[in-house]
Amino acid sequence: MKAQHPCFLVVDDSEDDRFLIVHALREHWKDTLHCVNSGNEAIRYLNGDAEFADRRKFPYPTIVMTDLKMPDGDGFHLLQNLKKNPAWAVIPTIVLSASRNLDDVKHAYALGASCYLHKPGKHADLNTLMGELIHFWDKCEVPEIDTEGKMLETHSTGKMGEHLPKFADKETRD
């Protein structure tokens, strides 16, 4: 992933699943990785609230992976919050869920999920999936942000860029 301060945030209520996901990610992701237990905890992390206030210790995530079915703010709740906040809406967000329910898939995409992946049952399959995922996102361009997670002003020029919003006005930076 081409970001100045790459940070992966894993959101899953299952301690066992978090352990397996982190273990699989660590095979392929060498940058900062943090885990939280719920959608509401992820929102506190994104806001830099309470224990997440120190951005040196808890850098702003450049990619989020969330489970769907969790108490205390499920993955849909997190996706809704990401989508309604312009500064967060651009964060690549991966849903990694055991659910194969087509309504869950459709709803996740409608709320802005970047992709929806089925959580494999075998560790080797999870490891392969995480490797493919990191390889893919490593090739992707992402919006530039500062260490506080604020999007940096863009300077679009030429016929294609002149009409684009700059995303640096006070409203999106607060």
Description:
- The protein has 174 residues and is an alpha/beta fold.
- It has a single domain (7-173), classed as 3-Layer(aba) Sandwich (Rossmann fold).
- 37% of the residues lie in helices and 13% in strands.
- It is built from 7 helices and 5 strands.
- A 5-stranded parallel β-sheet has the order 2-1-3-4-5, sandwiched between helices.
- Helix 3 (75-84) links the parallel strand 3 (63-66) and strand 4 (93-97).
- Helix 1 crosses helix 5 and helix 2 (39-47) runs parallel beside helix 3 (75-84).
- The longest helix has 17 residues, at 123-139.
- 30% of the residues are buried.
- Mean pLDDT is 87; it is low at 168-174.
CATH superfamily: Response regulator
CATH domain class: Alpha Beta
Which blocks of ≥5 consecutive residues have pLDDT under 50? 168-174
CATH topology: Rossmann fold
Distance between the termini: 25 Å
Main beta-sheet annotation:
5 strands, parallel
Order of secondary-structure elements: EHEHEHEHEHHH
Q: Please indicate the count of domains.
A: 1
The coarse silhouette is globular
Give helix % range: 25-40%
From the alpha carbons, calculate the radius of gyration and give it in angstroms. Answer: 16 Å
The assigned CATH architecture is: 3-Layer(aba) Sandwich
Beta-strand content: 5-15%
Number of helices: 7
Mean pLDDT: 87
If strands are numbered along the chain, what order do they take across the biggest sheet?
Answer: 2-1-3-4-5
Number of strands: 5
Task: Specify the structural class.
Answer: alpha/beta
